[in-house]
Design goal:
By secondary structure, the chain is an alpha/beta fold. It has two domains: 251 residues, Rossmann fold (3-Layer(aba) Sandwich), CATH 3.40.50; 99 residues, Rna Polymerase Sigma Factor, Chain: A (Orthogonal Bundle), CATH 1.10.1740. It is built from ten helices and 14 strands. Strands 1-4-8-5-11-12-13-14 form an eight-stranded mixed beta sheet, with helices on both faces. A two-stranded antiparallel sheet has the order 2-3. A hairpin with a 4-residue loop joins β9 and β10. The model has no long low-confidence stretch (mean pLDDT 94). Transfers a succinyl group from succinyl-CoA to L-homoserine, forming succinyl-L-homoserine.
Length: 380
């Protein structure tokens, strides 16, 4: 790419911070030392009132907008929403995006070196929860001089983090934007995650999570896990429109193992590509964090009681063909917020793209998100 788009945040350089204060985790363990990798876009104003935190989903990372080099083919994963004049306008906001603790894109995770052993953590890396992530993000906010976020924004697993921020740190967040998410996973969702985990765990190269010591990765298991996951991110309509029953050749091969349909080829490509850039232990960790998320569990399942302490205004958005995080689950969250007498706006967007819709530049979605973000007041 010889020239960057005018509405891009431009070239960005990831930053890294090392935390030496131990982090106590929900599982009962501690991380004595850890690193978080993050990117920032825009400028923090004098009152530090214009900071927005972007929380990523299962396979996301810190590179949400802009480009790492002039030759990078694709921008960050949410570039269509973050930048000058975009929904999350970097002319107004100081935007922070990080790779969550336990990730595999620079933050301390299972593939990182354990200073106590000099080897990668592997299976010994502790299990994390959404609440753990939020506590580590709060420490990053302290480092950046942000005492209160103008907004915490996220889709899917990122939306769960935004909600947990509003619950755990009510004084430190003014707006919670939760997109295509749920107050807890359904049994069906947990089942899909378990199938994906079993694909990885039963791969002969998994070696109980310590595959790095053997110089291998459970590539086939991770590939299958991604294929299963990817099916759930798309709607039947979107898959039909994109692939239908199109064949790769003019006729059937009558071969039980060959790739004959275009949708088969697509899924295999997605699995192959993902298995080369994502860590299997991180995938297990992230899906477990999804499964464990249930803040109302601490209050006997009473969601309204769980949300009673929230002070942030909330925006909840869902998509009609999203069956992984259906509109019904978003309405459940909205009902809980209303029962707790909280300020909440809700929009259900007509979209054919399924769960992946939250990542795409769908006009009504972008217009609604822009309208909400533009109404967030920031002092100078």
């Amino acid at each position: 790419m010889s020239r960057l788009p005018a509405d891009s945040v431009g070239l960005v350089t990831p930053q890294r911070h090392t935390f030496t204060e131990p982090l106590s985790l929900a599982c009962g363990k501690q991380l004595p030392r850890y690193e978080l990798v993050y990117e920032t876009y825009g400028e923090l104003n004098a009152s530090a009132s214009n900071a927005v935190l972007i929380c990523h989903a299962l396979s996301g990372h810190h590179h949400a907008a802009g480009y790492h080099s002039i030759d990078e083919r694709k921008p960050g994963w949410w570039d269509n929403c973050i930048g000058p004049g975009k929904a999350i306008d970097t002319n107004r906001f100081f935007v922070v995006s990080l790779n969550n603790l336990g990730g595999c894109h620079g933050s301390t995770g299972p593939s990182s070196i354990d200073p106590a052993t000099g080897k990668s953590y592997g299976a010994s890396f502790p299990v994390l929860t959404v609440e753990d992530w939020v506590h580590s993000q709060a420490r990053l906010a302290d480092v950046l001089g942000v005492q209160q976020w103008a907004a915490v924004v996220g889709g899917s697993l990122g939306g769960m983090q935004a909600l947990q921020w509003a619950i755990s740190y009510p004084e430190r967040i003014r707006h919670c934007v939760a997109i295509a998410t749920a107050p807890k996973l359904s049994a069906q969702n947990i089942a899909f995650n378990e199938v994906a985990r079993q694909a990885i765990i039963t791969d002969p190269d998994f070696h109980n999570g310590d595959y790095a010591a053997f110089g291998v990765i459970p590539k086939r298991g991770l590939m299958l896990a991604r294929m299963v996951g990817h099916i759930t991110y798309l709607s039947d309509d979107s898959m039909g429109a994109k692939f239908g029953r199109d064949l790769r050749s003019d006729q059937l091969n009558y071969d039980l193992t060959s790739v004959e349909f275009e949708v088969e080829s697509y899924l295999r490509y997605q699995g192959q590509e993902f298995s080369g850039r994502f860590d299997a232990n991180t995938y297990l960790l992230m899906t477990k964090a999804l499964d464990y998320f249930d803040p109302a569990g601490a209050h006997g399942g009473d969601l309204a009681r769980t949300l009673a302490g929230i002070k942030a205004r909330c925006l909840v958005m869902s998509f009609t063909t999203d069956w992984r995080f259906s509109p019904e689950r978003s309405r459940e969250l909205v009902d809980g917020l209303l029962a707790a007498r909280k300020d909440v706006s809700y929009l259900e967007i007509e979209a054919a793209q399924g769960h992946d819709a939250f990542l795409l530049p769908i006009p009504r979605y972008i217009e609604a998100l822009s309208g909400y973000m533009n109404r967030i007041e920031v002092s100078q």
